[in-house]
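Assemble and predict.
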Amino acid sequence: MEQQQVLLEIKNLTKVFPGVVAVDHVSFDIRRGEVHVLIGENGAGKSTLVKMLAGINGIDEGELIFDGERFKPADVLDAQNHGINMVHQELSLMPNRTVAQNIFVGREPVKEKGLKWVDLKKMNEESQKLLDGLGVGENIRADAWVKDLSIALQQMVEVAKATSTENKLLILDEPTSSLTTPEIKALFEIIQRLKERGLGIIYISHRMNEIFEVGDRITVMRDGKYVGTREVKNTNVDEVINMMIGRNIGQLFDRKWNKPGKVLLETKGLTGLRFRNVNLKVHAGEIVGVAGLVGAGRTEVAKAIFGFDPIEGGQLFREGEEVSLKGYTPKKAIEKGIAYLSEDRKQEGLFLDFTISDNIVPVMLSKLFPNGFVNNRKKVQVADEYIKKLSVATTDSEKIVGSLSGGNQQKVALAKWLLTKADLFIFDEPTRGIDIGAKAEIYSLMDELVREGAGILMISSEMTEVCGVSDRIYAMHDGEISGELIRGKDEFSEDNVLSIMLKKRGSHE
Amino acid sequence: MKKKLLGVLLTAVVTTSLLAGCGSSEEPAAPAAQEEPENVEEAEEETEAAGEVAEPEEATEEAATSEGIDTSENYLEGKKIVVLLKSYTHMFWVEAANEAEMLADQYGCEVEILAPTVANSNEEQIELLENSLVSPPDLYIIVPADSQGIAPAIAEINNEGIPIVNVNTQITDESVSYDSYVSANQYDLGYTTVSTAIEKLGEEGKAIVIFGKPGAQTYMERDEGASAAFAEHAGWEVLDNQVANGDRNEAMTVMQTLMTKYSDIDLVYAEDGEMALGAAEAIKAAGKEGEIKVVGDNSSVEICDAIKSGALYMVYDDAAWSQMETGFKVANLVLGGQSVEDTYYSPIYLVDSDNVEEYSKRYDE
Amino acid sequence: MKAEKLNLKLLFIKGSRVVVLLVLFIVFSVFTENFFRFDNWSNIGNILLQEAPFYMMLALAMVIPMIVGGLDLSVGSNISLSSFVCAMVIRETENPLLAIIAGLMVGCLIGTLNGYMIAKIGVPPFVATYSMDWIAKGAVLVISKGGQITGFNSFRAIFNSWRGTYLLISLVFMVLAWILYTKTVFGKRTYCVGCNAEAARISGMKSAQIRILAYLASGFVAAMTGMMYISKLGAAEPTLGGAFTMEAIAAALIGGASFVGAKSKISNALVGGLIIVVLNNGLIHIGVPGVWQDCAQGVIIIAAILLERLLEKMQTERS
Amino acid sequence: MNKVKNFLKGISGSSWAGIALIIFFAVAIDNYLGSRNLMNILRSTSALVVVSVGMTMAILLGEIDMSVGGVITISATLAGMYMQAAGTVTVGTVVIAVIICCLVGLAFGLFNGFMIGIKKFNFWLVTFGSMSISFGLAKGVTNGGVISGFDKKFQWISTGRVLGISTCIIWAVIICIISVLILYKTRFGLHIYAIGDSEVCAANSGINVRKTRFWVYALSGLTAGLAAVLLLARTNSAGATIGEGYEFSAIAAVVIGGTAMEGGKGGFKGTIFGAIFISAMKNGLQLIGLSNYWQQVLLGVVIIAIILYDVINARVRFKKSLRRVYSEG
């Protein structure tokens, strides 16, 4: 029975960020020796919740009962001392340090006698013991540099680091986003091993097949709220999806499929830093989804087509006419009517310190103000027009974009590109970190654009989104197109997409 | 009452000696040819050095004058001399460097001129001397930026047994030794410049002294001489004594500051030519040209032009070239193994609006 | 009531630096006799005409790179090198116009090199410009062999004919920069690059080129300052620029400029320059000897960053 | 054998250029490598390598302490003034003078550490501010001039000889050994590397980033104070110019020594090589007869060359690593 004893009880935990309630009175419990899956759309508040457990984010309201006593982590170290460790999605390791130094960072063992020098020998031995304990001891040496390891092996190091202290609760945040099938299997074996040791494991993901393979119980979150918890045994994919998006799939994506028109964009043998001979087509009135693992090179292809990254080989055609790649820059791409909504909104999409109007006009500055002088009245007038058009949740065009919610920020970023009257849009993870309501609006905007004859190339790692919105789906694996699904011809399901996504090179006909 | 009597008596004594002093230096300092020793020809100054004026307070031991030196044999032929100066940027040292190179050709010896990149930097001078010992010369001519600070390097040279002729700024650290000290009498330079200025400007007035660089013996002695001269004229009040490190740019800012602080200034004594020109520029920029008279030491083409244009009132030139020339002569004696005096004073020359035309001819050749 | 209290605080935040300037001016006028006496117009006139223009130009040369989120530590030696080259050209050719062009070109060259290293190659701004400062400092010493050039009266006549020329030139530069960087499309793009260079590039702007132009402009302003200075001093000295970099930074910071991209305004340079001038002269009048000016400037820099942190806190509380 | 190979591979390309330059000097100037000149080089390195200790730690954090030059100046000046005021100099006064130097250096270090580490101000602004304050104080206190001429007993610290080796070299070696131990052997040292490599990971692993950064700047101030003692004793004078340019030479020594500007890589062993190389270059340039202005130009060019080399090299390696990862498949 010790197996079922409650390890952690979460009571109406709440976290408020400016403009949005990220976690809204969530309560559920985690048992010892259990893999508790936490699932929800991008922006449902999963990561914020677990960061509160791990002491990275502060707790605004609510309380935690950990191992029977009330506990509020002051900081990361406090949480670690209580046995709560987390493996982040973007690995937080020190590339230029050895594996042992990474595992024991912050609590290096010291020699007892004399001056308390760091006992490097002991540190290496202990690290090697830990790695062997996880069964990865052969292919990771304790004194190897972390930067020389592949992403999968680095993840193992993170797990080893998390379980090096007497760990009770292990949190894994989307651990498989960049792992291939064999590597995922190795991770699941380790999770099984840790489960037997009696650890409680929180496993965050939004991939259905993984959840049903490794999880014991599933808790679903939507827009920061707790939806429900189900035993894996007595639930199924559709019920979980329904809980995740709060309406059946049809309502979210009410795409009106239309007949694809002329070819807006075509690439032949496109080669660059992270991708090789990519051939893809986008027709007018069509949304082309691009699925793939993190690091499969999808964003790099998009940035190359937009002239942001250098193209090393192959050809690019716009409406059948070849684009000269010499000195091809974003400026030229924009002149050719291409628009790029970047994946990292805050870093590459928006000017967070500026007002909404200053964020909408930058691309078309020389067109809007041909005489070279910026006249504010016109700028505000254009901004107001698009604020109404995209129903951004504010009337003041001079509000600082940084203080807007995720959804509104994305609308402003989109408005910037709509201004350019482009007819080929590249959307890179358009709905990451956005609430369901705003997602629906973005999808309807995309549908509207396509109906007006534009073409959209959409990169997304959310299966429901890819299957629900795209007319055609390309899958990329290791820098190459590894498969294509066409609506009507192939059945759009997560399994089909995953199968072409994880396939090895060469098996693509 | 008693104090007043003493004041009168003092002024009487001073004026008589002053008359004698400036009387002697009145004649124009015309360069006179001198009989040519076989291979050493140099412009030898005829006039008696003004150094003869007996300073009232401390009695310096009787210093030999520069032209009494026997320059018949040339022991410098083929020898290597290292000349260390205070900086490359100050016009006085640029003149001294050119003179040294000219003299080296005349004597047929090899000369290497060293100077710190940071003007008046004692640390660099020490490093320059230490490094020069790697291939040691036969004799050093050293102008220290800091009379006491240079001691460690001089000690190093002393244990290498290389003779030193100390020019312009005296090495005052007792623990180290040098063969001979050649310079204009700095105390006398300061004293004479101020006394002559007061004599021309009258008994009443307010003055500003712009000090060179503390730690350098030349500026200190000139300052003592100037203070002594001001002390003798009760009518004159020294408003302020500010440091400008011998830098024209700093002197200008200092002058600008002082003009905003004191509204009526009559005389500015800058302890070298660079600072004098800097002060003059500040005065011209403030539109007070002519109101405030600027006097200083050293001379150069630019100073002569400034005197012609009235920006500067007068200067006493302690003639870098004559100090360097005497330095080489003493070096010649030292390397010839002949006995040398402890101190040699080279003459100083008055340059004012009357004789500036004539004096600046010297720079044309 | 709350709304009106808010914009009082907003007003203070926006105009805080002007308030500092006025307070300093009043304090010094009251406490010292001849800092500001109505009859003694010459004193204030002298400060305004002779000293203020230089500080404003120095602050301007520092603020422009700050707009694109960088900074320029080579302002000091840029002034020495460009002014010395200008003096050399005068000595050789006696043609002042050619000399001015030569000086400005040297300044622009230094600025472009800085910009290229920072924008194209990716060297951190303060490392690139700090090394350039040393290279230029060495270069001017090498070409001058330590000597100095004087007596270019025809060149000086251009600037010294009317006592107000320096102030006029600095005001013209200030107004031109203000128009260029706040009113034009180029200015809006420069601010975009300062705020987020990647987003700017994706919005179709040549962000690398815009950053290089910012450093070029800084070099141009520095060169102009250098030539104004040698015409005032009457001599081109190799060690001229020494303390100017520090003064430029102090003026820019106290004026409200910030190293965070797109947060600085050209008006910061104007206000900053005036504050430094009033402070320096005021200190002298209350008896602080000139040698303490460098130390005062260091204190100003620390005070400026504390003031900025305080204002930031007030701003975040308000929003 | 592979230890030597690693060591050789470790020396970056730019250091090979440095070694070539020194060989050129050795050939061009006779007895350049003679014992006297080597002593000159090591003597002038002693103050630089001591101040480079603090600078190495700051750069390992990915930051820079610009104030070391000023801190050296003010520490030496205050200690010098104390000794002159003390009149007869006994061993006691010498010890007190050394303590004054260290305390003044530490004071500035604590100020920097507090402002940057605890209050999270921009490191560059704070250290530039304290640089101007320290240089300004020295200029103000000495009225723009110089204090010089200290007692032989104090000069012994640098100019004395023990077993034929100048004492300042011995002090420098002792300080170097202590620093190597602190940097490579203690937790504090490893934490500096961790923060420099990735501050997020260090913070998430419970390293007290604020305290570590605080102590890095405090030690940097202290080492500047120690360097002031050596410099004051060696040059027998203190004034506004004594520490001028030392922050630039210290940065040069660290960068030439192979420590990356963005932090996390490199270490103190490289810095020792860098410091010696700079003094050797200065010495060589002077003996060749090139005016020592060239030395300023060369130093600036060498630093930029090394940084450009590192930046471009890092970019090439990054591209290669991308290709390697994805071509493994």
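Chains B and A do not touch (no CB pair under 8 Å).
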